[in-house]
Amino acid sequence: MSYTLANLSELTATEAVGDPDCEIDRVDSLMQATEGAITFLADPKLKQHLKQTRASAVILKKEHLDSCPGNALVTENPSLVFAQVASLLNPVAAHEPGIHPTAVVSTSATLGEGCYIGPGSVIDDDCVIGNNAYIGPNCCLHAACVIGEDTRLNSQITLCEKTVLGKRVIIHPGVIIGSDGFGLASEGDKWFKIPQLGCVRIGDDVEIGANTTIDCGALGDTILEEGVKLDNQIQVAHNVRIGAHTVIAGCTGISGSTTIGKFCKIGGAAAIGGHLQIADHVTLGGLSRVGQSIEKAGTYVSGTPVQPYRKWLRSSVLFKKLGELADRINKLEEQNRSGES
Question: Which of 133, 137, 226, 271 is deepest in the core (most CB within 10 A)?
């Protein structure tokens, strides 16, 4: 599949500079691109490579146009336009409707028009699958799941009982949604399981990365609102609520009954405690440890940056002495105040 520069300009609402008939058939990186490819410059730190690129066109801001050796698409958001162009040049392959002979579909399940059920997949009783949904190989939908139209389950995905997915949801391999939350009660030195009676509800246009797990609610439901994007290997515990258009990077863990606001950005391997409230428009740095609610929008970080080993050893020794040093400082301040009086 290919487009002319003029075609891409029209489809992405950008300004074309150079040969409007230039043919573009693929995307590539700034340094690796060759003739026929389009690339982009979003990070000014990479501007040094712009003059050497062999790409047929570059997506960039107007301020970098003078350094571009050839054709360009000019925009204020090069990353977004690159994503749009990459999608145009690499469309998701249309699936042929039908049920593979090795799939097992309950007679009480309802399948919309244009659905595909892949090899080895199991659709249990009373499931409802919307139009044009794609259920890939070896997926398992337990009883009474609801799948919105144009939703795509790639492969090896388990949806436990009563899971609800909205429209245009994308789920990558290995995801498990609706498994029991970690709910336990103790008596002496023994633990007893608390039944997990809720389900998981996921809004439209959500994407969930590979091997992520989302637990069902204990009584109410675990909820991901529209437009949420989850990376790989994330743990979402029972009764968590994630607000619309929040993005969360890989290996993050979110403990039970925590609410994360809308339009948040959470870095990789963040550890978020339970029963907390995180406001809208909060950004958490990678490895952040959140043990209390965050009530105001803003950027928050925690953790110790990497440093040479011997320097870290010295810092760790000093860290252990902080309490002692604080006591000594307080005593000195008290002595100074006494002397002044």
Answer: 133
Spatial separation of the C-alpha atoms in residues 150 and 133, rounded to whole Å? 5
Cβ burial 326-336 (10 Å sphere, 16+ → b, else e): eeeeeeeeeee
Evaluate if pTM is beyond 0.85: yes
**DSSP tag of 91:** P
For the chain, what is the HEC assignment? CCEEHHHHHHHHCCEEECCCCCEECEECCCCCCCCCEEEECCCHHHHHHHHHCCCCEEEECHHHHHHCCCEEEECCCHHHHHHHHHHHHCCCCCCCCEECCCCEECCCCEECCCCEECCCCEECCCCEECCCCEECCCCEECCCCEECCCCEECCCCEECCCCEECCCCEECCCCEEEECCCCEEEECCEEEECCCCCCEEECCCCEECCCCEEECCCCCCEEECCCCEECCCCEECCCCEECCCCEECCCCEECCCCEECCCCEECCCCEECCCCEECCCEEECCCCEECCCECCCEEECCCCCCCCHHHHHHHHHHHHCHHHHHHHHHHHHHHHHHHHC
Asked whether 38 and 55 are in contact (CB, 8 A), the reply is yes
Mean pLDDT of 151-163: 98
pLDDT confidence band for 305 (50 / 70 / 90): confident
Cα–Cα dist 128/125, whole Å: 9
Q: Given a cut of 80, is residue 341 above it in pLDDT?
A: no
- 229 pLDDT tier (thresholds 50, 70, 90): very high
